[in-house]
Write a structure and sequence with these properties.
The complex is a heterodimer of chains A (377) and B (385). Chain A has 3 domains: 7-120, Acyl-CoA dehydrogenase/oxidase, N-terminal domain (Butyryl-Coa Dehydrogenase, subunit A, domain 1, Orthogonal Bundle), CATH 1.10.540; 123-227, Butyryl-CoA Dehydrogenase, subunit A, domain 2; 230-374, Butyryl-CoA Dehydrogenase, subunit A, domain 3. Chain A contains 11 helices and 10 strands. Chain A has helices at residues 7-23, 26-34, 43-51, 70-82, 89-102, 105-116, 229-264, 276-305, 310-336, 347-357, 364-374, and strands spanning 122-125, 141-145, 148-159, 166-172, 180-186, 192-196, 206-217, 221-222, 266-267, 270-271. Chain A has a 4-stranded mixed beta sheet with strand order 1-4-5-8, covered by helices on one side. In chain A, β2 (141-145) and β3 (148-159) form a beta hairpin. In chain A, α1 (7-23) packs parallel to α4, α5 packs antiparallel against α6 and α7 (229-264) packs antiparallel against α10 (347-357). Chain A is globular and about 80 Å long. The two termini of chain A are 31 Å apart. Chain B has 3 domains: 7-82, Acyl-CoA dehydrogenase/oxidase, N-terminal domain (Butyryl-Coa Dehydrogenase, subunit A, domain 1, Orthogonal Bundle); 117-226, Butyryl-CoA Dehydrogenase, subunit A, domain 2 (Beta Barrel); 239-379, Butyryl-CoA Dehydrogenase, subunit A, domain 3. Chain B has 12 helices and 10 strands. In chain B, the strands form 3 sheets. Chain B has a 4-stranded mixed beta sheet. Chain B has a 4-stranded antiparallel beta sheet with strand order 2-3-7-6, with no helix packed on it. Classes of the chains: A alpha+beta (377), B alpha+beta (385). At the A-B interface, α7, β10, α8, α9 and α11 of A face α7, α8, α9 and α12 of B.
Chain lengths: 377, 385
């Protein structure tokens, strides 16, 4: 029994933290994401991270990845979360994982090397206007036409939509609800266009992918046509776990920032951190962060092992986090007093991240209902 | 990370499982005869005082083995290992660490055999959360200590033969933690008066204890004079990673689920109510967080690192759940939740009583706000107030 990280993983954590502290402190993060018409990330830093093997960390060695487990990726995500590092890391990992797990050897060789070396950005598009995570919510049609599929529909709330060179898209292949397929759509496909929305959290790009009679070859379908719902569910679970893993780092940093503020701010001739009205909410935040940390560590381990309780574990982690992280960030702003409301202070950046995390791959309502169902209720 | 048991651990788990299967047959009523046989069997197996050193009669069990043992027992709702609750929880460990040879020989075998109960004389009317401010007076006269003062919230004082007692032997001290001494006191010593306190659920589990010129032989002092605080703290530190409590809470949640399935209000099972479903799922998630937090603490212990203030995390969760599950059950029940007995009351008012008994767990051993202070000051490094 060992619920801890290996020495190598701890070394990796230190290395990633040092890299991000040096190259992407929050001042730099603000520059990157506030730049007019900028890509919302730093392509040069992304390339260096790819070189260091952090982008392809979890991708198969045979196709240019490093071949390590999700548990090791978790260490990197906690750090990118702490730094609010703006990058398409989670999106790209999800696309690569879909291709690795459900695609053929040929498809893997075609797309994964570009994702692993950082030259291509990938993403996964599921959500539509229906705003539900059930299979019935997918209306984007894939109409067969010889050895091609004609795609039409609109995918919404797609992470890194505009930046993505390839998008793994959930599409409908038949009228019964679970009859879905996964299709890879490349950026230059005629009839496919992507645009980012005006998002609250500037460190996370989110947008839409419009498909107007976009034609893709059937060789772009991952796995069996019309039978992808279980694969899609697995990808949604993985997405929820990765988002929560990153949220652990972000929530921890928000707690640290607020704790430091409480130690430095003097009112009534005392450090405000001396007052129980300040101390107790901070203690409660600590309890919550440590708890969804434990939940998501286990969920990631369960996904690595393909354990029977992986789905339940993911839902518990995401549900807890989706409630607790926004609440703790709101408290963080409150404890800062007036300056917490300013653009200048950093705590607001974490509040916005928390609000991004909340619905991503399912909110607390969605996941608690799944916990209830899986618990025979 | 690795949540699998090693080969030796798995072998130990199987040994435990087969012993329990043999001694706890399915559907076995908990009759006095059964209890007697069980007690004899676990003593022989050295599971009472399982973590204590073998030379004092304990089982010498390691941390992981303790967890496995408790885990397997909880799964089968096995009766407790030994009946001298406080003796096994902290009096025994304190005596093993600080006691003289004579004290060990005199008390440890009786604790293991459950011959009688121990109670704990720590809290005083003016010293609750601020325990170290205790004032119970104690003066030495020759070979005796003379104790005058009062203790309160002393669980099972009326049924105990012995008490582990904290007194103040010195009042002019730099720190309030100095000048405290620990005594082992026979409850039938002249001058001790026990007055049970009726609690809000109508029962009486704890008492006030008054000391009027109570004479305690010096040989009954545990540790040195003035060392009482360390004796107490080290005993409380022997506390484990709370994994065992999780099983009790999991069972409670199963009971709440059954209650929700079986309670029909307005023609609908309460288990179909979205609000109730969400709250049950939340409670279940919180217990799982406790279990996994406990595993992280356990990993630290296994690496030989001492457990610090992080155990307060699970104490806060537990407090929340002990209170919250009772309230949830009452909300599921609706109007009948107000009844304490009679045929209209669900299970004779068991949930109503449960909903009034949480202070026993939630207040004893440090209130939630004390746990928050501990986390804020010792982990987050905020200034003491």
């Amino acid at each position: 029994m060992n619920f801890g990280f290996t020495e190598e993983q701890e070394l990796l954590r230190a290395e990633v933290r040092k890299f991000l502290d040096q190259n992407a402190p929050l001042e730099r993060v603000r520059e990157i994401v506030e730049a007019e018409d900028g890509p919302g990330n730093d392509p040069a830093l992304w390339a260096r991270m790819a070189e260091l093997g952090w982008v392809g960390l979890n991708m198969p060695e045979a196709h240019g990845g490093v071949g390590l487990d999700l548990e090791t990726l978790l260490v990197v995500l906690e750090e990118t979360g702490r730094s609010l590092f703006p990058s398409p890391l989670i999106s790209t990992v999800l696309a690569a994982k879909a291709i690795e797990r459900f695609g053929s050897e040929e498809q893997q060789a075609r797309w994964i090397p570009g994702l692993a070396d950082g030259s291509k950005v990938g993403t996964f598009a599921f959500m539509e206007r229906s705003d539900t995570l059930g299979p019935e919510g997918v209306e984007t049609l894939a109409k067969p036409d010889g050895d091609e599929l004609i795609l039409s529909g609109e995918k919404l709330f797609v992470s890194d939509a505009a930046a993505a060179d390839l998008t793994v898209v959930a599409v409908r292949s038949g009228s019964d609800a679970p009859s879905l397929s996964l299709v890879v759509v490349e950026k230059d496909t005629a009839g496919a266009s992507a645009a980012d929305f005006e998002a609250m959290d500037l460190t996370k790009r989110i947008g839409k992918l419009t498909l107007e009679d976009a034609r893709v070859g059937t060789d772009c379908v991952l796995g069996e046509q019309g039978a992808a719902w279980p694969s899609i569910q697995w990808l949604l679970d993985l997405g929820a776990a990765l988002v929560t893993a990153e949220a652990v780092g972000a929530a921890e940093a928000a707690l640290e920032i607020t704790t430091e503020f409480a130690k430095g701010r003097i009112q009534f001739d005392e450090q405000i951190g001396k007052f129980q009205g300040v101390k107790h909410p901070l203690a409660d935040i600590y309890v919550d962060v440590e708890s969804f940390r434990s939940l998501v560590y286990y969920a990631i381990w369960a996904l690595d092992q393909d354990a029977d309780d992986a789905r339940l574990a993911v839902s518990r982690a995401k549900a807890y986090c989706a409630d607790a992280f926004p609440q703790s960030a709101i408290m963080g702003v409150q404890l800062h007093g007036g300056v917490g409301y300013t653009w200048e202070y950093d705590i607001q950046l974490y509040l916005k991240r928390a609000k991004w995390v909340r619905p991503m791959f399912g909110d607390a309502d969605h996941h608690y209902e799944r916990v209830a169902l899986l618990g025979d209720l | 990370m690795d949540f699998q048991l090693s080969e030796e651990e798995e072998a130990f788990r199987q040994e435990v499982a087969s012993f329990l299967d043999e001694h706890l047959p399915e559907g076995q009523g908990r009759t006095p005869e059964f209890q007697a046989k069980w007690t004899e069997a676990i003593r022989e197996k050295r599971w009472v005082g399982f973590s204590w050193p073998e030379d004092v009669g304990g089982g010498g069990g390691g941390i992981m083995e303790q967890v496995i043992l408790k885990d397997e027992m909880a799964k089968r709702k096995a009766p407790a290992l030994g009946s001298c609750f406080m003796g096994l929880a902290w009096v025994g460990p304190s005596i093993i660490q600080y006691g003289t040879e004579e004290q060990k020989q005199k008390y440890i075998p009786d604790i293991l055999d459950g011959k009688y109960q121990w109670c704990t004389g720590y809290s005083e009317p003016d010293s609750g959360s601020d325990l170290a401010s205790l004032k119970c007076k104690c003066e030495r006269e020759g070979d005796e200590y003379v104790v005058n003062g009062q203790k309160i919230w002393t669980s099972i004082a009326m049924w105990s033969k012995m008490m582990i007692l904290l007194v103040r032997t010195e009042t002019e001290v730099k720190s309030k933690h100095d000048g405290i001494t620990c005594l082992l006191v026979e409850m039938d010593t002249p001058g001790i008066e026990v007055r049970p306190i009726k609690n809000m659920s109508g029962g009486a589990m704890f008492a006030e204890v008054f000391f009027d010129d109570v004479r305690v032989p010096v040989e009954n002092r545990l540790g040195d004079e003035g060392q009482g605080w360390q004796v107490t703290i080290s005993a409380l530190a022997s506390e484990r990673s709370s994994i065992a409590e999780v099983h009790g809470l999991i069972r409670k949640i199963e009971e709440v689920k059954d209650l929700a399935r079986n309670t029909i209000r307005g023609g609908r099972a309460m288990s179909d109510d979205p609000g109730i479903r969400r709250r049950i799922a939340q409670a279940e998630t919180k217990v799982e967080a406790m279990r996994l937090n406990g595993m992280r603490f356990l990993t630290k212990q296994l690496k030989g690192e001492p457990l610090g203030s992080e155990t307060s995390i699970n104490k806060l969760h537990r407090a929340d759940l002990e209170i919250g599950l009772g309230e949830l059950a009452l909300e599921i029940l609706g109007s009948s939740s107000t009844l304490m007995g009679g045929e209209e009351a669900e299970k004779g008012g068991a949930w109503a009583k449960f909903s009034l008994n949480w202070p026993e767990v939630v207040i004893g051993g440090g209130t939630p706000n004390i746990q928050r202070n501990i986390i804020a000051e010792r982990i987050l490094g905020l200034p003491k107030d």
